[in-house]
Write a structure and sequence with these properties.
The complex is a heterodimer of chains A (393) and B (108). Chain A has 393 residues and is mostly beta strands. Chain A contains five helices and 25 strands. Classes of the chains: A mainly beta (393), B mainly alpha (108).
């Protein structure tokens, strides 16, 4: 009896203690929500279900984004929490001579392995910076990451399946499922020409190790130079079509103004025609210092950041500290055609005050960034970035 | 013995009340990062039950929480898009309640 009483007392004590603690925790962490999920560590939580996690900016000081902080973006809540690698199969069906069903071992032993460094950038990266604001995932700049991908070329797989004459589109589907039958499954498609270009690949490794589950384990489609909406994770179905693939996620979602540079339109005059989003826009960002930093007067401040495009080669990055003139930044060596490229610029401010520093990149085609860019869905953000810095004594 | 029984009854009663009040504060599962902590701020808003019944099979309230404030017209468009494009089986009567709820927590 005494024991029972004691248990009651302890129970009550625990409850009354834990309540205020929880409260203060809530207040303390309302602004910054970080997350430690399976294979992930210290990411910024955008949404829990489906999971969408952002990479904190400081990790972009590294050329290769660590797997445990690589951004996570899923559309459908029906997401497997484990994948059995013994029973997992990648199917290749449709307009082919020999439909294939391949195990992970088949992919690793029957096909030549290939590696590429490529930047995956979410179509909606930096959406929270759009002005006026647009609904959708409110990402800052952390919906992207650079990694070395290892796997097999899509071209080799399609060759093994023997694509029939007249093939037109190829669709890619993953293990993620709609939670309701009425919700369209997340399936993306690319043209057969694109799929056969020798660059598109299916990765079973990311930075030398298997992909984290939340980044698409065991297989992820890698479409170098194209927005990450095409980089289908947990990929298990490839299908070849003799005509246009008609799926919701190709024909209605992820649309941008048709044939308009930077996917630009205005709030008052929306584009009448749209097309599926495709290649990465040219863009550059600041990594250090972080926004609203305070730096010392007459001291060297090393500005640093990243520039990238769809693989047409970043040739110039310019910095403006006075809002008028542009100075050339130093570029680090090229990592890879589809990788980001790091830039650095030493700046020694001689006057106190608030500065708005700008960065813009130019590629070998002469493409550069606009002063303003906007579209209704908040895609392809690439207007010239600004960074507020306060120079103090 | 009788006294002990009384004491137990009293403690049980106490426990019952404290667990009730506890439940109110952590009604939602408190997972990694207390993911629902901000959601709880919106718990009291009218229409929250209708929102939950119709929306959270596909996505959590976090999807709303992360948005900046939008005018009613924008929320109407979004709910309409959920119905027409994303196949959300929301009856018209509920759609209106959901829009009101969204405007009450993230309106402009």
């Amino acid at each position: 009896m005494r024991n029972i009483l004691l248990t009651f007392v302890i129970c009550i004590a625990c409850i009354s203690c834990s309540t205020p603690n929880k409260k203060s925790e809530q207040i303390a962490s309302v602004k910054e929500d970080t997350l430690n999920a399976e294979g992930k560590k210290g990411m910024i939580l955008l949404t829990d279900r489906p999971p969408n996690y952002e990479t904190p900016l400081r990790y972009f000081k590294e050329d290769y984004t660590p797997n445990e902080v690589f951004f996570v973006r899923w559309h459908l809540a029906g997401l497997p929490t484990t994948v059995d690698t013994n029973t997992f199969r990648l199917s290749i069906t449709g307009h082919v001579k020999n439909a294939l069903s391949l195990s992970l071992n088949d992919l690793k032993t029957k096909f030549k392995s290939t590696s590429i460094v490529a930047l995956a950038e979410c179509a909606g990266n930096a959406r929270s910076f759009f002005d006026p604001r647009v609904p959708g995932g409110q990402w800052k700049n952390g919906a992207m990451g650079n990694a070395r991908w290892t796997g097999v070329k899509v071209k080799d797989l399609l060759a093994a399946a023997g694509v029939k004459k007249g093939a037109f589109d190829v669709s890619f589907n993953g293990l993620d499922e709609p939670p309701l039958a009425s919700v369209p499954d997340f399936v993306k498609s690319l043209s057969i020409t694109h799929a056969m270009d020798g660059e598109m690949m299916i990765a079973y490794e990311m930075n030398g190790v298997p992909l984290p589950l939340l980044n698409g384990f065991p297989l992820k489609l890698v479409v170098p130079g194209w927005y990450a909406t095409y980089w289908v994770g947990m990929l298990n179905e490839i299908k070849v079509y003799p005509d246009t693939f008609k799926g919701y996620w190709m024909q209605k979602a992820y649309q941008i103004p048709k044939n308009v540079r930077n996917g630009n339109e205005t709030h008052d005059s929306l584009a009448k025609e749209t097309e599926p989003i495709n290649k990465l826009d040219i863009r550059s960002i600041f990594v250090t210092p972080e926004p609203d930093a305070m730096i010392g007067i007459n001291k060297k401040c090393e500005l640093e950041g990243l520039a990238f495009d769809a693989g047409d080669s970043i040739v110039k990055v310019e910095i403006s500290t006075d809002g008028k003139s542009w100075k050339i930044a130093k570029l680090n060596p090229v990592i890879g055609k589809f990788s980001w490229r790091r830039w650095k610029y030493d700046w020694t401010p001689h006057k106190e005050g608030n500065y708005t520093v700008k960065v813009k990149a130019t590629n070998a085609l002469g493409e550069t960034q606009p002063d303003h860019q906007w579209n209704r869905s908040g895609y392809m953000r690439n207007e010239i970035e600004t960074l507020k810095i306060e120079v103090v004594k | 013995m009788n006294t002990i029984k009384k004491i137990i009854a009293l403690f049980s009663l106490l426990l019952f009340f404290s667990s009730c009040s506890e439940k109110k504060q952590s009604d939602q599962p408190t997972d990694i990062n207390q993911k629902n902590k901000i959601e709880s701020l919106f718990d009291q808003a009218s229409g929250e039950d209708v929102f939950k019944a119709n929306c959270i099979s596909c996505h959590s309230l976090r999807y709303i929480e992360m948005q900046p404030p939008f005018p009613r017209k924008t929320w109407e468009k979004i709910v309409d898009k959920m119905k027409k494009n994303f196949g959300a089986p929301i009856p018209d009567s509920s759609a209106k309640v959901i829009v009101d709820y969204l405007v009450s927590i993230k309106g402009k």
